[in-house]
Write a structure and sequence with these properties.
- By secondary structure, this protein is an alpha+beta fold.
- It has a single domain (3-65), classed as Arc Repressor Mutant, subunit A (Orthogonal Bundle), CATH 1.10.10.10.
- 44% of the residues lie in helices and 23% in strands.
- β2 (46-52) and β3 form a beta hairpin.
Length: 71
């Protein structure tokens, strides 16, 4: 896993962010953020829904990764 993917995973761990904020906070282009989200989605449960971004407050598609439940 690249450093960029790890950073984006940490950013969206239970904190829904829009794509623009993910790119801004991880200092990458929107395309690279999208590529990272695709990588994350292939390994973890990536959630996408229309909601309020916790960073900018806009209502948009936001992305988050939940923590695994302990059993």
């Amino acid at each position: 896993m690249s450093d960029r993917v790890a950073m984006i995973t940490a950013l969206i761990l239970e904190r829904p962010l829009c794509l623009s904020c993910i790119a801004d906070k991880s200092l990458v282009t929107v395309q690279r953020a999208t590529d990272a989200l695709n990588t994350i989605g292939s390994a973890l449960v990536l959630t996408s829904r229309t909601d309020r971004c916790v960073a900018c407050g806009d209502t948009a598609a936001v992305y988050s990764v939940g923590r695994p439940r302990l059993t």
